[in-house]
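Late entry, written up from scratch paper. The run itself happened at the end of the previous shift, but nothing got recorded in the book at the time, so transcribing now.
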Amino acid sequence: MTDPAKKYDVAILGWWYGKNYGSILTYYGLNRAVESLGRSVLMVHEPLGYNGYRVHWPTDIVSMDFARRVGYEHTEQEHYSALPRLNDVARTFVVGSDQLWNPLIGRVNDDLFLDFVAPENHRVAYGTSFGNRGTDKFKVPFVAKHAASLQQFKAISVREEYAIDTARDVFGAKAALVVDPVFLLPEEHYAGLADKATVAPGGEYLAVFYLDPNPEKVSVARAIADKLGFDKILVIPNPDEGREKVTSLFADEPRVEVLSEDAPENFLRAYRDAGYVVTDSYHGSAFAAIFEKPFSSIYNTKRGADRFKNLMAAMGFDDQRRVLETDTAETITENEYVTREIDFTKAREYIGSGRASSLEWLRTALDPESEGSAAIRRFQRFALDNPAFTASSKAWRVSRRARGTRLKVARDGAAVGNHAWTSLPEPLTPGSAYQLTIDWTPRTDAPAVNLHLRNPETGQFRAVGKVNVAQGSGTARRDAVTFTVSDPGFSEIMLGALHFTGRNAGAEVRGLEVVEVPAAVAAAARRKASGRAPAKGFAGQARALALADYERQVRSYDRARSADRISGARARMIFHAHAIEKGLSRSNFRAGFGRIAVPGLAKEMNSWLASGFSIDDPYLQSSAAVMKTYFERHAALQHDVSAFRQLFSGAAQDLIDATRHHEGGVLPAEQTREIRLEADDSRGFLDVVYGRRSVREFTDEPVSDADVSRAVQIAMQSPSVCNRQAARVHQFQDPEVIRSVLDIQGGFNGYEMPPRLLLITADLDAFLFAPERNQPFVDGGLFMMSLLLGLTQVGLGSCSLNTAMGSAKDAAIRKIIDVPDNEVFISFVAVGHYDQQVLVPRSKRTRVEDVIVRHAAG
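Output as recorded:
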């Protein structure tokens, strides 16, 4: 309970009142961490009134009893309309952990995006989750509404690494990675709570905590107890109506004792004193690590398996702690990781370092004197109530009324060229996507009405969406269309009289809203609105894959434009620098060249330095060297380019003056560009080219990182568009990872797994223009061929394995090896030492005459 006259430093919103131990202890960790930073805390109870998912919570449940015991100060449940009053009670509002921003959960509403917080107060998110990986669940209305709210946050943090991309790519907000709130408190703190337990199970036991128990999971727990020799199984019921279910499911197991009282303290005591833990709970797994109890986790796909994968990878376990719901007694017995001997060294380091860095992040975010913004680039958002319209002719009669603007088409006015439009405050951004929502009452005999954009300077217009009004003419309605702006200057929403026919034709327009949304989200909405069933066969697959590639390209373009995205900044910088290098290399040198490239490079270098990115970055150093060569060349010619020099900031000029020449610029073709790595010079070029074979069987001789690095260094001599060097090489040597990946890839069946597996990718962030859509594969292919030759040069065998696969396989592989979305697959390469006598396919090459097509002169 709280004193309404009392003031608080921080108000926390989230699901702290839930019946689940994970939720209860998540917010307990956050509450106590904030208090440890010297801030007073008010816990805000769930507001009512949004929808049927928001219900009155009893006051006698486990979570509320715990809240009273630990001394929470909290609000009572009220209608959400009362939330703005909290602006007079607290200065900073924190939305806590859990999947509070998952659109698939009905309880997720506007309050969890802190829409009620006044501009003078601060909004902070700690460890908040969007749910599982993937963006298909984010629909245009959800993004249009909540992106604007997230961009007003002072600071945002998330608990899953992929959520950083989601915040940036979908909502235009930057986010930091922090540990789950349960890790903010040390083990000793939870042990102290455990000492207050009302139930203290005795003896040695295996603890079982299932959120979603079923007979299969019961069998897994029984098999683990059998393998590890436990005579007692302590089952911890989920306080959210879990007691009756586990009692029934474990009824025929004589070793079972069900924890007799529900309380967080009892949960912690059962964990602390356990000999082993089996759980399907994310937080159940987290507390096993906190208490350093050997454990096995069933990744709960119902509640988000990606969360488990992220946590296990962060703690250094990967999938070692995972058991499957389908495991049998035999597979459990054979599983070497179902053991009481577990090394918690990496988990301890993750929890300790994560706690320190996350508390520091939280300290800064809660400092009322510090300023900040999570917005990367604020999405445009325009709302016009009762908008004013201008007509191109007397075909339209326009009258503004209290409840909306009346547009009426005169008799015989429904003709081409008769337009009416209303102005937005500023032009829409070319290349960006938007949702246009119109609140209106259309009147027409026509089956559909087009909505248009108009350029007031040129009069040019184009349709952005079609609204089906056949069943709704003459009734109040809200219609929405999504579109992408192709050209600059569009700042008006236009209607054409041609679409308004019949008696009393026209419309009452009460309001318009135009909201910028991510291009990929808009594209998905347009596909859904089209109502087209997916085509089958080759055509359907080709279309689906092309759309998936398009969406990935658009996502990368949006990401590369972000202010905090280094890869995009590098690409733009080297694009301009390389253009200047080409100008410097011309034999017929044109003094004063670079009217586009030099200002472009100045802008990128200035922005880089102002953002505090590394001054030692090779792309920046190379760009500085290019400009030093440029200025010195013009000084030698006594040609004044001081106007260009002034475009660079003082810091950029200092860097240019101090940089080293060999980092960039030009050189004679005969000179070596960089220091060559040691290699076997006895092998001539033709020996390497004609000696390369696709080897699929390898010896046991270990492959050294040094040999792979030498081969990659050779491959880096490959050309790339504007020298943007988008190729990346992912190297794997874990046999289980290699097997899992190649099982999906499917091109290595029947062979022993290779000692090393490489994956060549191309970073889409390096490509700046839509016509470069195929360039990642061109540059990636050039790099891959050079890499194959480089591997041959250093004495390694290799075999390229194609990545011609559908979206499902692509996604499955990315989940295993965690390759970022902005990198497209070029090829896998199996690598290892080989016996020179091993058999390989002959792979006969065709004739030169079949390859060369000679075109006659003239």
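The mean pLDDT is 89.
(Scratch paper discarded after transcription.)
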